[in-house]
Every structure is written in C-alpha cells, then in structure tokens.
Specification:
Structural class: mainly alpha
Order of helices and strands: HHHHHHHHHHH
Radius of gyration: 21 Å
Largest sheet: none
CATH architecture: Alpha/alpha barrel
Strand content: under 5%
Family: Belongs to the mitochondrial carrier (TC 2.A.29) family.
Number of strands: 0
CATH topology: Mitochondrial carrier fold
Keywords: Membrane, Mitochondrion, Mitochondrion inner membrane, Repeat, Transmembrane, Transmembrane helix, Transport
Solcar repeats: 1-59, 72-176, 185-272
Pfam families: Mito_carr
CATH superfamily: Mitochondrial carrier domain
Membrane topology: Multi-pass membrane protein
C-alpha cells in the first residue's frame, strides 16, 4: 500500500510520512486497500512461477547431461528465471492493476448501488471502484481486454531481470552455505538466502516498479501517459532522477521477510512431497 502511494501519489514525502498520512486519513484499513484480489490469487501465482522455474531448470540440466544430477549452471538458471518472469507477468499483471487502482483511491468507498462515472466520482469525492470485481468490470468495459494488461511492458522490464536477481542469488547463496552440494539446504539457510535474494531483487527492480505503478494507476481518473518511454520521460522531467527510487526502502525491507517465507514454504513443501512419494512406493 505504502509503495504504491509513494510511487504514484503526491504529498507523501518519505516512507514514515506516508504511513502516518494513510493512518490519519484512512485508519488501519487504509493499509489493506486492494489486498483481497492479490491474497485470493497469491497461492496460484507463486505455485506457477516456482513450478515453471523448477521444471525449466530441471529440463535444461537433463538435456545437457541425462545421467547426472548436477546442479544447473548460471546460463540454465538465467533462462529458467527469465521464463518465470514472463509467466509471472501473464498472471500477475491483471492482479497488480486492480490492486493499484484500488489503492490509489484515497476517498471512502461509495455506499449504495447508485451508478456513477469517473468525473462524477472525482467531483463528489467518491471512489470510482466499489471493489476488485467492479474494478475489473469497469476496466474491461472502458478499456477492453488490452486495458487489463496496462503497464505490461514496464512489468516485463521489471520482472524478467527481477526474477534473475531473485532465483540466481538464492541458488548460489544456498550452494555456498551448504557443505555437500547434494545435500538439501537447512531451513535457516533457506530463510536467509531467500530473504537476501528478495531484498536484492525488489531493491533493484524499484525504478521499473515506479514506472509500472504509474502506468497502472493512470486511468483511475484521467490518462496522461502514452507508454513506458513517455512515462519515464514525463516523470524524469517533472521530478528528476530521484523519482525512480521512490519506495525503494519499502521494497527492500518488505522483500526480505516476504521472500524468506516464500522460499522456506517452497522448500518445505518440496521435501514433504518427496517424502510422501518415497513412502508411497515402499
């Protein structure tokens, strides 16, 4: 929530000022705006992304040498990470769009079933969207299917290198901190490696994350950006180079625990599945 407001909103200053302003104007509920849609889809999203990464690197390793269980090299990890980034955009772009649109509504949500349009809502201080489903319907009705993937170019430029800087550091940190290369990393190693990888990935992805958020928020009340290059140009001319680092503190800090928990869950799930498979074949 704070990330989107810092990157797109006006008058928030720094992270702490943004937190204070959101709490003052919208109470605790303001920090969870637009989260229902991501929460409902996060299990599917992460299982697909991690599944694609694991299967592609396994396929690459097998094609290179079917007789060995050798861990993938840098090229294999990079290819698998890039594929994961592409898949993540296909699934995550609509979810991110709805989340950003809902988060950029600082007014209280409209009550009742009265119909309204964007300009009336802006003038009356009402929210444009009543919830995630209503938001998606409005986008499809007003912008068509292409509108659901607004900002997809910036998201690709964020997620493809972002996932390379996510999976590759994680793999190598686990490898460096595990004595036996055939031994699975321990829970603490996975936690630390996942957290560091998440902090690196989200921290370096911030410039494109800013552009993506601005493109996706564009259209709540009006449209001012024609595309990625136009957004970069206008943002730089108006706010300077520092605009592309808005929210970097939030991104880096939240990247550590979020990714640490994600990788730990992933590794523990793999171990449980393997154990179940072995037990069932004995």
């Amino acid at each position: 929530m704070q990330r989107a407001r810092l990157q797109v909103g006006k008058g928030y200053g720094n992270t702490f000022n943004c937190i204070f302003t959101i709490y003052k104007n919208e109470n605790v509920a303001g920090f969870f705006k637009g989260m229902s849609f991501p929460l409902a889809s996060i299990a599917l999203y992460n299982s697909v992304v991690f599944g694609v990464f694991s299967n592609i690197q396994r396929l690459i390793s097998h094609n290179r040498d079917p007789n060995t269980n050798r861990s993938p090299d840098l090229l294999g990890l990079t290819i698998a990470s890039m594929f994961s980034g592409c898949i993540s955009v296909g699934i995550g772009a609509p979810v991110d769009l709805v989340k950003i649109r809902l988060q950029m509504q600082t007014q209280k949500m409209i009550t009742g079933g009265r119909s309204f349009n964007k300009m009336q809502s802006l003038q009356n201080g009402q929210a444009v969207y009543r919830g995630p489903i209503h938001c998606m319907i409005c986008i499809l009705r007003q912008e068509g299917f292409a509108g659901v993937y607004r900002g997809v170019g910036a998201m690709l430029l964020r997620d493809i290198p972002g996932y390379c800087l996510y999976f590759i550091p994680y793999t190598y940190i686990c490898k460096w901190t595990t004595r036996d290369q055939f031994e699975a990393p321990g829970a603490f190693t996975v936690w630390i490696a996942g957290g560091i990888a998440g902090a690196i990935s989200w921290g370096t992805a911030t410039p494109m994350d800013v552009v993506k958020s601005r493109l996706q928020a564009d259209g709540v009340y009006s449209t001012k950006y024609k595309g990625v290059a136009d957004c970069i140009s206008k943002s730089y001319r108006k706010e300077g180079l520092k605009v592309f680092f808005k929210g970097i503190t939030v991104n880096t800090i939240r990247g550590f625990p979020m990714s640490a928990a994600m990788f730990l869950t992933y590794e523990l799930s793999l171990k449980a599945i393997k154990r179940t498979y072995v037990d069932s074949h004995h």
